[in-house]
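ok, trying the design again with the full structure, not the truncated one.
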C-alpha cells in the first residue's frame, strides 16, 4: 500500500470518527435544548437536576432505557421488529456524510506518526498533501445522493408499525408512509430548483456558487419555503406529527416498543432534524460561507477552517431552534388537511416553480448575465413576485380580501 493511500485512508477514518462522534453528541444536546426551550415557552424550568443546567439529563435517560425491561408483542415479526429502529436512524447518519461543514484544512505530512498515536508504528510511512476537504465523502452526485437516501427513512417507520402486530401501530405506519411520500415529492422538487441555479449536483460546488452570487435563500426564496415545509413533514415534527398523534393512535408506529428500541426512534427523529437543518444551511444559507466577507474564500488556513466550521454550526443551530420553536407554537394539522396541503398545494406549486425558475435561468443565460451578485438579485426579484402570487393563491378571499369585504359591509 502506497504512503499516499495510507494517508488518505487515515484521514477518512479520522473524519468519520470525529464527525459522527460530534453528531451523536449534537443529538444529545438538541434533546436537552428542546426540553429547556419548551420549558421556557411554557413558563416552567425543564430539566435542571442532572449535571449543570440539566446537561446530563439525556445521558441519564439513555442509561435508564438501557436497563429497562424489554417487551416484545407475541404477534410481532421479531426480525423486522428489531430491524425497524436501525432503519429509522441509519439514513440520517449516512446523509450527513456528504454535507461539507467547513473550509478545507491545510495539512502537509510526510513521515511516520509518533509512537503514542498507537497506529503510527502499524501504518508506517504515510504521506498527506494539500488541503483536506471538510466532508466525509465529497461525491460528485451529492444532490442525487440526498434524494436517494432521504427516501429510505420511511421504511423504518412503516416496518415498525407493520411488524408490531398492533392496529394502532399499523395505522401510524400507514399514515407515515402516505405523509412522507407526499412531501418527499415537494422536497425533491425544491432541491431541483437548487440544481437549476447552481448548475451542479456536487454540494461543495453549490456552496461555491452561493459565495460568488447570493445565498439561495434569496435567489430561491419560494423554493426555500417549500423545502422547509416539506422538511417538517419529512421529519414528522409538529405541525405534521400525525404518525404518532397520541390523541388518536396512542403513540402511533412505536406504541409496542420499549427500552432502548423506543429511544432509538427519538434519536432517529432528532438525528433527522439535525441533518435536515444542516442540509438547509448548505443548500440555501451558503453552507460554511461567512456572510459579508470574502476572507474565507482565499488560501486555506487553520483560522479559516475554524471560523467556517463555527459559522456552519451556528447556521445549523439556528435552524434546529426553528424546528423546536415551531413545535411548541403551532397546533397539529388534521390528516385530511395534511394530505390536502401536500397534494393540492405543495405539488402543483413546486411543479410550477421549477418551470418558472427554469425559464428565468434560461433567459438570464441567453442574455449573457454572469452568475454573480446581479444574477442573484434578479432571481430574488422574480421570487418576490412569485411569493406574492403564492400568498394570494393560498388566501382565496378568506383573509386579505375577506377582511376588506367585512370592513366594507361594516361601514355600509
Amino acid at each position: 500500500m502506497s504512503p499516499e493511500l495510507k494517508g488518505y485512508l487515515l484521514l477518512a477514518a479520522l473524519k468519520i470518527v470525529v464527525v459522527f462522534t460530534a453528531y451523536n453528541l449534537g443529538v444529545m444536546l438538541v434533546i436537552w435544548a428542546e426540553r429547556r426551550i419548551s420549558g421556557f415557552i411554557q413558563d416552567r424550568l425543564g430539566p435542571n437536576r442532572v449535571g449543570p443546567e440539566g446537561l446530563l439529563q439525556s445521558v441519564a435517560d439513555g442509561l435508564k432505557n438501557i436497563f429497562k425491561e424489554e417487551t416484545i408483542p407475541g404477534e410481532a415479526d421479531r426480525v423486522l421488529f428489531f430491524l425497524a429502529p436501525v432503519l429509522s436512524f441509519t439514513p440520517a447518519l449516512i446523509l450527513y456524510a456528504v454535507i461539507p461543514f467547513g473550509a478545507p484544512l491545510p495539512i502537509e505530512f510526510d513521515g511516520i506518526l509518533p509512537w503514542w498515536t498507537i497506529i503510527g508504528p502499524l501504518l508506517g510511512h504515510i504521506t498527506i498533501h494539500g488541503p483536506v476537504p471538510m466532508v466525509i465523502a465529497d461525491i460528485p452526485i451529492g444532490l442525487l445522493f440526498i434524494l436517494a437516501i432521504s427516501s429510505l427513512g420511511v421504511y423504518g417507520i412503516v416496518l415498525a408499525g407493520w411488524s408490531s402486530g398492533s392496529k394502532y401501530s399499523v395505522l401510524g405506519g400507514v399514515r407515515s408512509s402516505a405523509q412522507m411520500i407526499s412531501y418527499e415529492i415537494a422536497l425533491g422538487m425544491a432541491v431541483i430548483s437548487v440544481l437549476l441555479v447552481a448548475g451542479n449536483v456536487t454540494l461543495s460546488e453549490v456552496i461555491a456558487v452561493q459565495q460568488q452570487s447570493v445565498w439561495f435563500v434569496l435567489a430561491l426564496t419560494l423554493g426555500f419555503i417549500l423545502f422547509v415545509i416539506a422538511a417538517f413533514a419529512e421529519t414528522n415534527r409538529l405541525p405534521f406529527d400525525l404518525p404518532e398523534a397520541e390523541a388518536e393512535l396512542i403513540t402511533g408506529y412505536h406504541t409496542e416498543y420499549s427500552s432502548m428500541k423506543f429511544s432509538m426512534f427519538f434519536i432517529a427523529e432528532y438525528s433527522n432534524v439535525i441533518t435536515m437543518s444542516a442540509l438547509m444551511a448548505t443548500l440555501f444559507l451558503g453552507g460554511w460561507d461567512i456572510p459579508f466577507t470574502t476572507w474565507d474564500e482565499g488560501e486555506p488556513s487553520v483560522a479559516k477552517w475554524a471560523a467556517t466550521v463555527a459559522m456552519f454550526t451556528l447556521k445549523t443551530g439556528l435552524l434546529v431552534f426553528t424546528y423546536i420553536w415551531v413545535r411548541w407554537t403551532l397546533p397539529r394539522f388534521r390528516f385530511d388537511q395534511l394530505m390536502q396541503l401536500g397534494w393540492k398545494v405543495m405539488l402543483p406549486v413546486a411543479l410550477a416553480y421549477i418551470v418558472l425558475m427554469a425559464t428565468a435561468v434560461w433567459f438570464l443565460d441567453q442574455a449573457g448575465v454572469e452568475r454573480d451578485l446581479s444574477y442573484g438579485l434578479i432571481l430574488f426579484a422574480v421570487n418576490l413576485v412569485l411569493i406574492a402570487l403564492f400568498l394570494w393563491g393560498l388566501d382565496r378571499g378568506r383573509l386579505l380580501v375577506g377582511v376588506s369585504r367585512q370592513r366594507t359591509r361594516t361601514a355600509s
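Keeping the full-length input from now on. The longest helix spans residues 3-41.
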